[in-house]
Automatic annotation (TrEMBL):
PROSITE patterns for this protein: HTH_CROC1
Record's protein name: Helix-turn-helix transcriptional regulator
Domain HTH cro/C1-type: 21-81
Organism: Tomitella fengzijianii
A Pfam family hit: HTH_3
CDD domains in the cross-refs: HTH_XRE
Gene3D superfamilies per UniProt: lambda repressor-like DNA-binding domains
SUPFAM superfamilies in the cross-refs: lambda repressor-like DNA-binding domains
Organism ancestry: Bacteria, Bacillati, Actinomycetota, Actinomycetes, Mycobacteriales
Molecular function as annotated in GO: DNA binding
Amino acid sequence: MARTDDELEWPSYGFSFSRRLRYIRRHRNLTQEQLAHLSGMHRNQVSNLERNTSRDGGSADPHLSTVYSLARVLRVPPEMLMPDAAVAVTLRSRETADDTAWGAVEVELSRQLITELPREEAAPRSLGARPRD
């Protein structure tokens, strides 16, 4: 089926989600394996979400329950994982416009993460290894 001009460009939103997930996971000092274990997922699922890919070769499109499970483990509001959560939906995610747009997202995420919970308190003590992936 051909894409129409008014069709949502989901890959741009999936890409923004993947960048947010990876950024927050690293800030929380968790590996993909640790995040997967704590959220009841397989590491491949976390990896696919962070690479914006799915098993069928398309863009990542996580279930709402997955987003909430990840947010719970990462100790953030679900909206921190969601691209453009506070603005009206456009055809393409504003966060993917350019590097400046993503830079602004990183600054805002950092600000929120720093004010909400220090890194040391976020990572479970039993899984304290540094993130490698």
